[in-house]
Amino acid sequence: MISGVSAAQWRHLNNRKVFMQTLIHRDSKPWQLQVWASFLIAVFLCAVGLSWLPGRDLDRAFMVMGYFFCLSAAFVLAKYVRDQQQSKAEGKLADTPMFRLVVWGGFFLAMSLTGWGLWRMEINETYKAFLGVSWLYLITCSFTLAKTLRDSHEADLSEARMGRAARNHAANE
Predict the structure, then answer these.
(1) Which of 3, 7, 1, 4 lies closest to 160, judged by CA?
(2) Range of the domain at 35
């Protein structure tokens, strides 16, 4: 759920003061708690699954690296997509086409290699299913966490800008 926090901005229009209300969207505390709890549960499930992973140490090391690769690639992709959306709204070019290839390619490579590693492991099918579901849950939660953190950061920046504008207005009067 999103709750709005209003902030005031003053503007002079033909020597008259006009009060404008600007709405800054903030995520509610229960939503933030749910996002963090989901992410931590996903990390816990993945850690438990990888800790008790039967098989060779090399398989375990591959899967741990794959999970970290996927997690970092998901955060990078979330930031890239958000930056692209913001730059289009501002009419600017945010990143080069090569960086786009690196970001999307890295994400798909991480997901593919980790999925391939999981699929080829010689372990019980139920265990594979647990690892697969916890891995996908972790990726989903990481996108949600990245969005929540970015929204909070942008709301903080907006409030700081509005506070600065209000102080400048008060100083000019």
Answers:
(1) 7
(2) 29-168
